[in-house]
Amino acid sequence: MTIDLTFIGDLLAMSLPELAWLFFVYGGWLVILTFIVGFIWIHHLIKVRREYESSIKYVLLAIDVPKLNEQGPKAVEQIFAHLAGVEDEGSWKDRYLRGYHQPRFSLEIISLEGYIQFLIRTPEDYRDLVEAAIYAQYSDAEITEVEDYIQYLPDDFDSNNSNYDLWGTEFILYNEDAYPIRTYPEFEDKTSEDQFKDSMAALLESLGKVGRGEQLWVQWVVSTTDGKDWQDRGRRSINKLIGAKPKAKNAWYMWPLSLIGDVGRTAVEIPYAGLTFETFGQFENSPQKKEDSPNKLQYLTPGEKHVLEAMQHKLSKIPFKVKFRVVYLAEKDIFSKARVIGSLVGAIKQFNTLDMNGFKPDSKKKTSAKGFRKEKKLEKKKKNILKYYKKRKAWMDTEKGYVLNIEELATLFHFPMKGVKAPLLKTTEMRRAEAPFSLPTQAEVDLPELQGVIKEEAMPAFLPISESSTAVKDKPTSDQPTDEKEKSDVPPANLPI
């Protein structure tokens, strides 16, 4: 048998235009057409998704809970379970023609010159749902609509032409998202009278160290998901851990090949009067091969079994897709990455476990650069992280995000309990109570002398409220300290850029 390789020489003798034409004629046009259609389709999806996002009106809610709060992270876990009720995939037409996506919420803890506030940014259509979910667990909480604290920051931030410098990053998981992080049940200390060691204490301590001319923001952008893809990924990770062989799924093109094989098998067996391939195998003296064990679960170490149980526990709870960001902004003469970011990253590492999962800064998004044109790369990263934070960009706007369940989210974002010391954390000053049943109603008594005397409720001391807001609910005013050396309860104005 001879092989003719003269066509290779003919190809080498052709000019570049002739080779291109030959490629186009023999199927290359299909590759080019697929590329063009795919590019147009991706451009269309980006366009309609941006249009849909711009049509949504968001509100920013400040959440204050009593100083003597006794509710732990379990209550916030119930809040997230409540919010998961908005999950809706939408129709094919909604997703790909109108740009519809799952509703997004932004959970934020910010420190403006040491004044700490819990915030939730929500689509206006779901505001009542958010308030109902919070009041269901924290009946004494106060929820106030406030102005966005970063609305005046420019998208094209340039630290070279500003009095302020910036550091920011996105935190990603260092393992597959089927592996859980350290959650609040693991912070219990049964040897102490104060059994629960609130993980929020370290985070609030880091936020409280921010001083004059500094701001520190922590943000989790979360969106609901049905979790089907995540469940499949989780099961594959579990099968990999226990050494189980995944069930093979026959592709659509396999059934004709299977049919041909069955026909050929039957044709061979008929002439031998019922002697099948299995019958021939019985004549061999070699012992039959033992079937492999379906998995290696019985050989797992105690540590591996603990990881397996934790993974299965994570997969059993409601999932959210998450983007986790941190931004530190300060005047250049007092900017201190080591003092502020070192403390914050240390507080975040308390959620990490070496055998399962945890957080690490994303090297692609972290505001650091090396090599050629280092300064320009660094400035570009600063602009991008600030733009992503300001617009609360979620996973579909950049690369794919990861999944955390409601227990993990409640561990990261929950209101501190009464044992946590955070002097400048904005809280409610008093508990609300129902009015006595014996009070007369307006139908029973008329007090015309009080008409026009009731004044407008006091605005919250922490953040300026929108003029159009009507969401103020029972917000008491705070007495100002007389000592000039102490920090005032009146928050600083938004830092100019």
Using the CA coordinates, give the radius of gyration.
31 Å
Poorly predicted ranges: 267-286, 441-497
For the residues shown, what is the average pLDDT? 77
Number of strands: 9
Biggest sheet overview: 9 strands, antiparallel
How many helix segments?
13
Reading the helices and strands in chain order gives HHEHHEEHEEHEHHHHEHEHEH
* Strand residue content: 5-15%
Structural class: alpha+beta
Shape assignment: globular
* Percent in helix: 25-40%
In whole angstroms, how far apart are the ends? 78 Å
Provide structural commentary.
It is a single chain. With 497 residues, the protein is α+β, with helices and mostly antiparallel strands. The chain is globular, with a radius of gyration of 31 Å. The relative contact order is 0.18.
